[in-house]
Amino acid sequence: MGKKKKKKKKKKKKKKKKKKKKKKRKKKRKRKKKKRRRRKRRRRRRRKRTRKKQKKKKKKKKKKKKKKKKKKKKKKRKRKKNKNKRRRRRKNSAPAQNANTNNGRDDQGE
């Protein structure tokens, strides 16, 4: 068999890495987990018996008379009149009490 030729090594060019686009992931809806309730074991504490203390008699306090406060009068708020009503009144030209009727003129003895 003949001699094998030596192969020349080629210089490798560095490849630029392409940035991978991140795929948007669909958000999974979280399901609320039900918490398992653990049964707590209650420890019973034994009460130490103590001597009963003697109660002291309380002195009665005299009540002070309260002064009555004067009530402030509330100011009545003026309500805005409806403009349309005013216009109607002018049309009828009747006294204010009977704004919507025309009988008002007769009452005044015109």
Relative strand content: under 5%
Question: How would you sum up the global shape?
Answer: elongated
* Helical segment count: 2
Distance between the termini: 146 Å
- Contiguous low-pLDDT stretches (5 residues minimum) are none
Order of helices and strands: HH
Oligomer type:
single chain
The class by helix and strand makeup works out as little secondary structure
Describe this structure in words.
With 110 residues, this protein is low in regular secondary structure. The protein has a domain at 82-110. The protein is built from two helices and no strands. The protein has helices at 83-92, 104-107. The mean pLDDT is 72.
Outline the secondary-structure elements.
Elements: H1 83-92, H2 104-107
Region (Disordered): 1-110
Biased composition (Basic residues): 1-92
Biased composition (Polar residues): 94-103
Sum this structure up briefly.
Residues 94-103 have a biased composition (Polar residues). By secondary structure, the chain is mostly loops. It has helices at 83-92, 104-107.
Features:
2 helices, 0% strand, 110 residues, elongated, little secondary structure
